[in-house]
Specification:
Blueprint (H helix, E strand, L loop, with lengths): L6 H29 L1 H12 L6 H28 L1
Helix pairs in contact: 1-2
């Protein structure tokens, strides 16, 4: 038989999981970054050059869109030249 869990227990489990994620991201990962030499150097390089690593995701998306638009115009021009 499957045991039913109460709503309170589900909420507690959710809070424990969320707390674990926050501790992992904001305590454990910075500790590892500071402790491992290569990660520490990479982190310092990013900070010294004012590079925000999260920006590259949106930048890449914009570049992909530009490339897609460029290829569409090239293929359209190529079709028109053949006709």
């Amino acid at each position: 038989m499957k045991k039913e869990t109460s709503m309170l227990q589900n909420i507690c489990n959710l809070m424990v999981s969320f707390s674990f994620c926050l501790i992992f991201v904001y305590i454990f990962l910075p500790y590892v970054t500071a402790s491992v030499d290569i990660l520490n150097r990479m982190s310092q390089q990013l900070e010294s050059k004012d590079i925000d690593p999260t920006r590259y995701i949106s930048t890449d998306v914009a570049q992909v869109k530009e490339a897609e638009d460029y290829f569409k115009t090239v293929f359209e021009d190529n079709r028109q030249a053949r006709q």
